[in-house]
Amino acid sequence: MSSDALSHLSPETKPVLAQSLEERINWVRRSRWIAYPQASAILDRLEDMLAHPKQHRMPGMRLIGDSNSGKSRLIEEFTRRHQPNDNYGGDHIICPVLAIEAPPAAKETDLYRQILTRLFKHVPSSPGAMRDDAIDILRAIQVKVLIFDELSNMVASPNLKQRQSLNAIKYLANTLEICIVGVGTKDLERVVLLDPQLKNRLRPMELPPWKLSKESRQLMMSFETLLPFPEPSDLRSSQTTGFILAKAGGLIGEVSELVTAAAVYALKKGRPKIDEDAILNCGYQPPDM
Ligand SMILES: Nc1ncnc2c1ncn2[C@@H]1O[C@H](COP(=O)(O)OP(=O)(O)O)[C@@H](O)[C@H]1O
Ligand SMILES: [Mg+2]
User: Fold this and answer.
1) Ligand 1 midpoint to CA 146 (Å)
2) DSSP the chain
3) So where are the chain's domains?
């Protein structure tokens, strides 16, 4: 086959065509990163924050999006780009970007506990010591951007508890002069309303649902370049993109699941591309909406 005939595939996908069925299926199912304009804009903003000189009021961000809209994957990509340095010979790793999962309920001590356990540190029993130890270790690893994923979970807790946790986050930010990123669903808006100062500090960025557009068709094309089929599936046609987005509720996580299921179905059937039958009959179940 001439290389032109494979122009629908990315360079790293082309050699996969020659691999066994099992290897091709594993390739399709592996975790991948697809760049798209809004993700790039958010990553750029995060890079700016990382490069920001230390000052008392550091910039911050709140990253809002539905469940399965790609928030955690984006944070994972940012942390992958800034992996900790082992700092052999020093006492601690150097970790400018640290992402932790916020505790399921708003509780100040759980916040510190989460930080300490994430960094494999002993958790003392007194709340004051927990806070001091959390600050000491964050300072020692030279954190610059501290990310709390799932921060919107706090919304279910009493307002007083939420305020205490927000205060604790603000205290960490001010004491260490670091940038804070809060990640969550729309509920995060309600949480930060409780602290206008923090709300002001955490600038909103959103991962909105995908609609049929040039960008979403480009996204489909990006998916397609990673799928080892000898023929183009033309997922980027308005009709196919529109159909997939409607089924997936505009969520990148659902799009990824549908496209993966359709690809695996087509590979197992020995088809040269993802066809309509694969999209319709691959067994993908849309989320309840
Ligand atoms: N940029 C991306 N490239 C490829 N796949 C992605 C991307 N973003 C999200 N996904 C897919 O969507 C799934 C859900 O994304 P995730 O970040 O966990 O959503 P959220 O944290 O918003 O609930 C991921 O497991 C991944 O399969
Ligand atoms: Mg997530």
Assistant:
1) 20
2) --GGGGTTS-TTTGGGGGS-HHHHHHHHHS------HHHHHHHHHHHHHHHPPP-SS--EEEEEE-TTSSHHHHHHHHHHHTPPB--TTSSS-B-SEEEEEPPSS--HHHHHHHHHHHTT----SSHHHHHHHHHHHHHHTT--EEEEETGGGGGGS-HHHHHHHHHHHHHHHHHHT-EEEEEESTHHHHHHHT-HHHHHHEEEEEEPPP-SSHHHHHHHHHHHHTS--SS---TTSHHHHHHHHHHTTT-HHHHHHHHHHHHHHHHHTT-SS--HHHHHHS---PPP-
3) 4-30+210-281, 37-207
Nearest ligand to the CA of 210 is 1
Mutational pocket test of ligand 1: of 10, 73, 76, the residue with most ligand atoms within 8 Å of the beta carbon: 73
CATH number for region 37-207: 3.40.50.300
CA of 71 to the centre of ligand 2 (A): 6
pLDDT, tens only, 46-97: 999 999 999 988 999 999 999 999 999 999 999 999 999 988 888 899 999 9
Average pLDDT score over residue span 123-129: 96
